[in-house]
Specification:
The protein is an alpha/beta fold. The strands form four sheets. It has a seven-stranded mixed beta sheet, with helices on both faces. It has a three-stranded antiparallel beta sheet with strand order 7-6-12, with no helix packed on it. Helix 3 packs across helix 7, helix 8 packs across helix 11 and helix 9 packs across helix 11. It is globular. Bound molecules: pyridoxal-5'-phosphate (PLP).
């Protein structure tokens, strides 16, 4: 059997069917239905956030966050993230200004912010990549000093807590993804989390549903609503997400044990007082060639690892940005190791052995 980089956890079918019965009897299938409101309520409690809007995707959450913040001009952002981060900026007609990341945890480097600032800078959009928390204090201080909005792509952060507070509640706005590949999922979906500004939260809520309530049209909007079927999947998965995280933790720690003191570098969160969700196990191999070799030799083992993230976003053909050497090198060298319920310790040993063989050929020769 082939082992993929991840395997979407599905709830016991009976539990989902129970929600389907409720949908069939209410006949409310979408448009702010009862299951959606129940999910939003539970997420507000779990995240201890003032406003949580469930939307159709993480990408839509980013688009709404930028649009409802009335952003134009330049947005300082990270080159090391999924393409949606820079894509949302460009889609909203703004200009991404890429600032390189830190070596250790691959989040935006606060030392480089000042050099990227221009009179047209309006916001920072930073990613807690792999769930590693950005330097929230320094980003916050810089944003306040220069009157910038601070928005986080928090797609990887479900279950992460920084200083006892969910990581997805930092910044003016945080955007979560609940895509099937994420540690907590609703098949497709995402959320906009706003812990302060009620006016901004109201605009996001309006804009996700065409900008109107009944016959009163307040603003332009899009269709970023989500359905009762997706909310039902979220309600089921909320029951098991902590068990999923506990399993990822075991796998993450075992990979780290197997690969310790090797030429494989394992980026980790750069701060204490942090609770990780262990959603990804990123590994940096010594070179791009070794990445190709490793993927090929894992494929022979029936294991698919993934280059994640590649390319660096400043190198996208439509986003010509300044050089970001740390991110570009990480993008060439990074893979994410398989983690899911299908990944047994035996699979992990095989993955680690294959990597070690690639990065230290002399070991196999000995
Ligand atoms: C998955 C992801 C997104 C996009 O989320 P979707 O729900 O797939 O639209 C955005 N940013 C990052 C960093 C992601 O990993």
């Amino acid at each position: 059997m082939e082992i993929a980089v991840t395997k979407t956890p599905l709830p016991p079918l009976e539990e989902y069917i129970e929600y389907l019965r409720q949908i069939w009897s209410s006949h409310h299938v979408t448009n702010n239905g009862p299951l959606l409101r129940e999910l939003e309520g539970r997420l507000r409690t779990r995240l201890a956030a003032r406003h949580v809007w469930f939307v159709s995707s993480g990408m839509a959450a980013l688009q709404l966050a930028l649009k409802a913040s009335h952003l134009t001009g330049e947005i300082i952002t990270t080159p090391f993230s999924y393409v949606a981060t820079a894509g949302a900026i460009l889609w909203e007609g703004c200009t991404p200004v890429f600032v390189d990341v830190r070596q250790e945890d691959l989040t935006l480097d606060p030392d480089l912010l000042r050099a990227a600032l221009t009179p047209r800078t309006r916001a920072i959009l930073a990613t807690h990549v792999y769930g590693h928390p950005c330097d929230v204090d320094r980003l916050e201080a810089f944003a306040r000093e220069h009157g910038l909005k601070l928005i986080y792509d928090a797609a990887h952060t479900f279950g992460c807590e920084l200083r006892g507070r969910p990581l997805a509640t930092y910044g003016d706005v945080s955007c979560l993804s609940f895509h099937a590949t994420k540690v907590f999922h609703t098949v497709e979906g995402g959320a906009v989390v706003i812990n302060g500004d009620d006016g901004l939260a109201e605009r996001v809520k309006l804009m996700r549903a065409f900008g109107h309530v009944g016959d009163v049209h307040y603003s332009i909007g899009i269709n970023a609503k989500n359905s009762e079927f997706h909310a039902a999947m979220g309600l089921c998965n909320l029951r098991t997400v902590d068990a999923v995280i506990a399993q990822r933790r075991e796998q993450y720690l075992f990979y780290h044990e197997l690969l310790t003191d090797s030429p494989v570098r394992l980026p980790t969160p750069g701060t204490d007082d942090f609770q990780h969700n262990y959603a990804y196990c990123p590994a940096l191999l010594p070179s791009e060639d070794s990445v190709h070799d490793a993927l090929a030799s894992l494929a022979i083992e029936g294991v698919r690892a993934r280059r994640y993230f590649h390319p660096a976003l400043n190198c996208l053909p439509y986003a010509a940005g300044a050089r970001c050497p740390v991110a570009e090198e990480a993008a060439q060298r990074a893979i994410c190791l398989p983690m899911s319920e299908a990944v047994t310790p035996e699979v992990q040993r095989r993955v680690a052995a294959a990597l070690l063989q690639v990065v230290t050929p002399h070991v196999s020769a000995a």
